[in-house]
Amino acid sequence: MELTPTWYLILAAILFAIGAVGLLVRRNPLVMFMCVELMLNAVNLTFVTFGADLNDIGGEISVFFVLVVAAAEVVVGLAIIVAIMRRRSGATADDLAVLRG
Amino acid sequence: MEQLAELVWLVPLFPLLGFITLMFAGRRLGEPMAGWLATAAMGGSFVASVAVFIGLVSLDSEDRFVEVELFDWVVAGDFSVDIGLLADPLSVTMILFITGVATLIHLYSIAYMHGDPNFSKFFVYLNMFAFSMLMLVLGDNLLLTFLGWEGVGACSYFLISFWFKEEANASAGKKAFVTNRVGDFGFMLATFLAFFTFGSIEYGEMFSGEIGSSAATAIALLLFVGAAGKSAQFPLYLWLPDAMAGPTPVSALIHAATMVTSGVYLLARVNPIIHEANQWAPSLIAWVGLFTALFAATIALGQDDIKKVLAYSTVSQLGFMVVAVGTGVYVAALFHMITHAFFKALLFLGSGSVIHGMHEDQDMKNYGGLAKYMPITAGTFLIGWLAIAGIPPFSGFWSKDEILVGIWDNDDVFLNEVLFVLLLGAAALTAIYMTRLVVLTFFGKPRWRDEITGEAWVAADDDQPLPERHPHESPWQMTLPLLALAGLAFAGGFINMPFSWGSGDSKGDTKYLEHWLEPSLVWDEHHVSVSGGVKIILAIVATLCAALAIAWAWRTYNDERGGTGPDAPEILSRGWRYDESVSNFMGGPGRKGFDLLTRFDRTVIDGAVNKVGELVRLDGTLLRRLQTGLVRSYAALIGVGAVALMIYFLVVGNA
Lengths: 101, 655
Description:
The complex is a heterodimer of chains A (101) and B (655).
Chain A: H1 5-25, H2 29-53, H3 57-87
Helix pairs in contact in A: 1-2, 2-3
Chain B: H1 10-57, E1 66-76, E2 79-87, H2 89-112, H3 119-138, H4 142-160, H5 167-198, H6 203-208, H7 213-230, H8 239-242, H9 248-257, H10 262-269, H11 271-276, H12 280-301, H13 306-327, H14 330-357, H15 375-389, H16 395-409, H17 416-442, H18 476-491, E3 500-501, E4 508-509, H19 512-517, H20 532-557, H21 570-573, H22 578-587, H23 589-623, H24 631-653
Antiparallel strand pairs in B: 1-2, 3-4
């Protein structure tokens, strides 16, 4: 059985779905973060796949952008989580509803 | 030498610097330093004006348009306005006499405002006024002119109600401001219309642009509404007589020599547009001017307050200028504006000197025989009187005659012969009321009494020593400007005398002002073309009228027994009840109309705005339900949205 791009895309789709479902069902912000990372990396995988398949360097370049953005996002997000942990005992996403309309 | 004209930006800079310095350091400088600083600023401005004038003279006459763009001011899409100054013969003529007269009046004010607790504030306003006035004149577009226009209006308001502790002064200031707003409305509409028509409000582009006669008529008349407000023409003249509540130097500078002439200047500035307008528009302007001239002259006859007489006289003389504008003889309008600035500033400053000497009494019926006690004031005042009455060779004669000749000559104006005769009547009335003023003030038997004791201030017998309270001559800071202005009021007419000689190449004449202004004005069939003989006849008729009027008035009002001559009918002293009628109307039926408008504004206009606000608020209350505060529900919504978009593109996008 040949390893065609289809397999990679299916894997990416599965990873993305796991991430998305995790984001929706888990309440721990750290785990939610990991789920977001999973979704981002699933997208990265599709980028790389198409980049290789279409012989276009653009795919790989996009991945670098996503990596950088993800890193920056984690920094900000973790800082927020740490700040919240300092003020209150736990950090459950559903309890943080201060901005409710 | 030509580069000197580029220095035009210096002209408004000096008063601006003076204004800023005095605003922050005025109180510390105190009296009289603040006054001297302001006077020096105006003097510098005058020197700069002379430099610009020299620079302009050294250019060829068709090149005398120096535009100095300082910086961009308003830029929005196709619309752009610079802070740009335009030095051309018209504006330079204006700045020369404005800065010159202003310098003299600043000097005068140092003595006049002596001892006032707000001494430095007065000069702050005075310098600010000079700056605004110069921007009005030098601005190269309608918007910058409007800026100066509003600036002088604001300063006029500040200075009329300068002694604001008395309610009459404060409300006179308000009256001036509100009445001027009516005129400003016309100015603004004209500006919009000009932009709509030409796509630009810069004078240069406006005058080279194409315009239909109806648009030109509309712009000209709207600007005339603005001019009627500022230059106190019927029916908006109401504020000017009340504006005399301000200190006398203010009356002389703002409400006689400079600001009130800005309306006439504006009309002269846009003369190419008036030229394009339908013929009935200039005729209308001329007739409104004539009506104002006659109307105000009759009222002046019935006033006892010396400043009120001069105020109505100013309204009347402005009417003369407007008649000249409507007739198309702009040179005569500007000529009269200049001579009027000289002699009316002189008369106002002279009246200030008299009021000063009479311990703030303004009622002419309490004057009399002052010539003996105030020789310089009286002597200079007499020159001003002969100038305004139109006796040759004083300045007023030449300029008034120029206007009369222009009317006689221009058949395009509706019923120009009738206009001529009526204006001649207004000139005769001018001579009568001015003679009455002079006789009651300076001649005849003294009529002063002490208000408290009722005793005469001066001994009836010349041999006895004078009591402590008696009329006295003013200090040199006041008499020096009087002397200078008297010289100008005498000789000011020589800049444009109607003499000519020779023919062909050796032809020459004495119409210096006319040749100087030629590049700024549209010349057409309105070029005065009557023959020399007719001119001489007209001049003789005008002079005879003035002389007869003076002789009659002198006989009527000069009373050695201490009387004040016959009083004018009451309706004249009350200004034909026009002011009262307007007040009654505005307080009665007019008030109801305004209330109705207010209600319309509250319910319909404000209502619409409020309803829009309520609608947005309703939307908000509905939409806020979406903001649950649950991060996971947001994530779910994003996911649903993404899926929905994907389905959309799969189904619709491919179809």
